[in-house]
Specification:
The chain has 433 residues and is of the alpha/beta class. It has 15 helices and 18 strands. Strands 3, 5, 6, 9, 10, 17 and 18 form a 7-stranded mixed beta sheet that branches. Strands 13-12-11-14-15-16 form a 6-stranded parallel beta sheet, with helices on both faces. α7 crosses α14 and α10 packs parallel to α12. 52% of the residues are buried.
Length: 433
């Protein structure tokens, strides 16, 4: 798949952009530790050149692994190339600053938006940073979608080919736009997730229109689903029902957030179970799950044979379980084409199906920073482990298999401060049960 997509992208050529993913190494030849992709389920910690200044560079103090990184790990995102540095959720300390950057200073703690915005196009002026027209050169995405989104750190050449943040240093294009200064009162463990999971989960809840009195179903209780459940309750939802099969995730959602849960390995007919719990159907359903784990044999076969890239099972369940004229939102990552989509139920029931897109981080991160600073939302409830950067290859394996109840992991570098009070202490993946 990668060879075909890269060849097709080469034929289509690059789209115009105001930033480019290539960077030059520092003249002194210095290197850094970084996590790179070399094939499906083959990620390696390598010594890579430290990037020289083009826009600001970050010295990364904290990074993490995201559920959507598993799509890369399995080679399910097109246009991956051997040696690509992964990682889109990170924060750090500014190490160098380009001449056009006036609002960021060396030594400042900052969190990076996972997408790269230009700050000047019509979308950026509306704070819709993920829809930026000018920071990705992906001709293939342009051809598939009719448009292209903003570039994304560490998420293949389909999203621009920018080296990512699972490394000790990162070049941040348009740093005057894409970095948010963090006050000293907020530790790294609370600030890091302003890069992705907090804006993403909040965007899903806001964009789908959760309101007071709603009954909300959330498919997938990874970090996005866990945070979305809490934001739904903050927005006034009367009931929130989480659907998953991982015992640790179900337990966390029920015990820490107080939501109702459905284990779909027990209740295999999810729609029937929801109809038992909520006669008449859900007001709102949100897909916070994944397309790379099909449930049924039919989709497993079709996906294995590349007759589809994505799976429609969750979306079909949501449409069927949601009341007439209700709303369904998709924040889980989908990239291509699916079979057996229940378009008839969508039309006949008058369902509002919303593709949320990549979350526009810039639209929300000041508001969310305020939530964190005021103690209104503490993201550390999803942080289950802390490991060193050197653990990344083992972490991908453990995270993929959900070993040891892993939910969200803080990955420290040699620049990180000690673990904040109340957060997990440093451990090794091999020691997880």
């Amino acid at each position: 798949m990668q060879a075909v997509s890269n060849k097709l992208a080469e034929r289509l050529g690059d789209a115009p952009a105001v930033v480019h993913p290539e960077y030059k190494a520092r003249a002194d030849g210095s290197t850094m530790k970084a996590l790179a992709w070399y094939g499906a389920r083959d990620v390696r910690l390598i010594d890579a050149p430290i990037p020289d200044i083009t826009e600001p560079d970050d010295k990364v103090t904290g990074t993490t692994i995201c559920g959507s990184d598993l799509h890369l790990y399995h080679g399910e995102i097109v246009q991956l190339q051997s040696g690509d540095i992964l990682g889109h959720e990170f924060m750090g300390i500014v190490d160098r600053v380009g001449p056009n950057v006036k609002n960021i200073r060396i030594g400042q703690r900052v969190v990076a938006s996972f997408q790269i915005a230009c700050g000047e196009c019509s979308y950026c002026k509306q704070k819709l940073s993920s829809m930026c027209d000018r920071t990705s050169t992906s001709g293939l995405q342009n051809a598939m979608y009719g448009h292209r989104d903003a570039g994304i750190f560490g998420y293949s050449h389909f999203t621009g080919g920018f080296p990512g943040g699972q490394a000790e240093y990162v070049r941040v294009p348009k740093g005057n736009v894409n970095l948010l200064p963090i006050p000293d009162s907020i530790p790294d463990e609370k600030a890091l997730y302003l890069s992705d999971i907090l804006p993403t989960s909040y965007h899903a809840v806001v964009d789908v229109g959760v309101k007071s009195g709603d009954v909300v179903g959330i498919w997938g209780l990874g970090p996005i689903g866990q945070c979305a459940a809490r934001f739904a309750l903050m927005n006034g939802a009367k009931r929130v029902i989480g659907i998953d099969k991982v015992p640790a995730r179900l337990k966390l959602a029920h015990e820490k957030s107080g939501i109702e849960i459905i284990d779909f390995s027990v209740h295999t007919d999810v729609v029937k179970r929801i109809q038992e719990l909520v006669p008449g159907g859900l007001d709102v359903a949100i897909d916070c799950g994944t397309f790379h784990e099909p449930k049924t044999l039919l989709h497993k076969v079709e996906k294995a044979l590349m007759l589809e890239t994505d799976v429609s099972e969750t979306v079909n369940e949501m449409i069927t379980a949601t009341k007439k004229m209700g709303s369904c939102g998709i924040i889980g990552v989908y990239v291509g084409y699916t079979n057996h989509f229940n378009i008839g139920a969508l039309m006949e029931k008058g369902i509002r199906l919303i593709g949320h897109g990549q979350a526009p981080v810039h639209k929300y991160w000041h508001e969310l920073l305020g939530f964190v600073e005021a103690g209104k939302f503490d993201p550390t409830f999803v942080v289950t482990h802390r490991v060193a950067l050197e653990e990344f290859p083992a972490l991908y394996v453990a995270f993929d298999k959900r070993v040891g109840g892993v939910e969200k992991v803080f990955v420290e570098t040699k620049f990180s401060a000690h673990a904040a009070e109340g957060t997990p202490k440093l451990s090794r993946v091999v020691d997880w049960e």
